[in-house]
Amino acid sequence: MTGTHLLFISLALSLGAAVEVQRPRGVPITKRQFYDENLPFTCLDGSRTIPFDRVNDDYCDCKDGSDEPGTSACPNGNFHCTNAGFRPTFIPSSRINDGICDCCDTTDEYNSGAKCENTCKELGRKEREVLQRMAEITKEGFLLKQQLIEEAKAGQQERQRKLTEMQNSRKEMEEKVEALRTVKETAEVPEKEAKERHLKAWEGKADGVFVQFMMMFVFFSVSLAELQTHAELDSDADGSFSETEAQALFGGAEQVDTAAFERVWSNIKDKYVSEVTSCSALQYNVLVTLSVWCLSVMPSEVAVTVLSSTAAQKARDDFEESERALREVEDQIKNIEKEISFDFGPSAEYTYLYSQCYELPTSEYIYRLCPFNRVSQKPKYGGSETNLGTWGAWAGPEENKYLLMKYEHGTGCWQGPNRSTTVKLTCGKETAVTSTSEPSRCEYLMEFTTPAVCQDPPNADSSLPGHDEF
Fold first, then answer.
1. Alpha helices, DSSP H only, in 229-387?
2. pLDDT tens figures, 243-292
3. Which residues pair with 406 in a beta bridge?
4. pLDDT per residue over 356-415, tens digit each?
5. What are the residues facing 359 on neighbouring strands?
6. DSSP classification of residue 460
7. Rounded to the nearest 5°, which phi and psi values hold at 438?
8. What is the rounded distance in angstroms from the CA atom of residue 101 to the CA atom of residue 105?
9. Is the separation of the CB atoms in 449 and 434 below 8 Å?
10. Which of 161, 317, 421, 430 is the most buried (most CB within 10 A)?
């Protein structure tokens, strides 16, 4: 209800002492012209014309019941309660003289003998107090709304400034990333070449190891017990080359000759002779003979490899760090662009709700509304959270779509649709969830107050509407 409506109603209620215009019982003043006692009466649906003395004669002549506004003769008739000092209203004609007071001015029980008390003035007084409080809330809320609009404008300008700044920063960072990519690729060339040289040298020494072992089997076979003295063949590097490991290595044979060794050499070579980038790595799980060779590698060659790897690794680290920083900036740009693109109302008055959440505890659940994001409920005493819908769109009437929010595609109900929530926004000084309900299965309704909804209250000297129901 807008501030204008509140004022109009309040003014109307204050006119309780107005003089009532004479007309047939049960007829509103808006239809007084159709009930001229000096003329025949024509049914309001135009179906027939009757003498005026048949109006309110307790017999239904018109199909629309318009000839009996003050009696219960017509089943489809309506009786108008003037209710001077309060709200005028209509009741079904069947309630006329039924012994129950429906009109606060008691006019519906004019011939029933019911003891009714005219409560219109008291009801009007109470309603005027409520309307006055609502008018004050609307006024204060509207002032807060103006502040929200100013803050939104400043925030929008700041976001736009930050976006431009970060876009410029992104361009510089992209150039830096490409420059570091070139440095990395250049530094990796000598590293790769050094690794290839070492691999070739390693393979040469590995072939030498093969020859040494082959010499062991040229003239005689070797027993498993003798093989166990070569701890360099230990497969699990536990410091002990067991009989079981020896049998597994040579297919369960008790004696190992040249042919048997040739068959398993490729496996030994693949397992123990891998590409190595440093002496420390080389000395782990390798043959003793090859370990000795590692220590005998020319110092200059080792130095070249270490220096090449160090330079390349630093270049990789610098490149990866610059890429990470660029990704962070791009994520921030996306978030700012997303926020700027949101529809926060005609004057961006709803901007302040973005990234905020509001809760309402009930006897069983804690309901949580995060505007422009999602709605959820969680059991008050432990349990998992249920998604009641994610932001969909503004869903209010055409004249003001910003009165309703729609949240859709929540957690599915058992053998039912996905949960959804409609949030009804009303004017208030505070920003809060005030109530929740489930009108239909899996469809929730949430009441939410915010100053952003409050409309400009009318001036005290606004044109006064006539109270045409007296």
1. 243-249, 258-272, 279-282, 288-295, 299-341
2. 777 767 666 666 666 566 666 656 665 554 443 344 434 443 444 444 44
3. 393, 422
4. 999 999 999 999 999 999 999 999 988 999 999 999 999 999 999 999 999 999 999 998
5. 368
6. T
7. -130, 80
8. 9
9. yes
10. 421
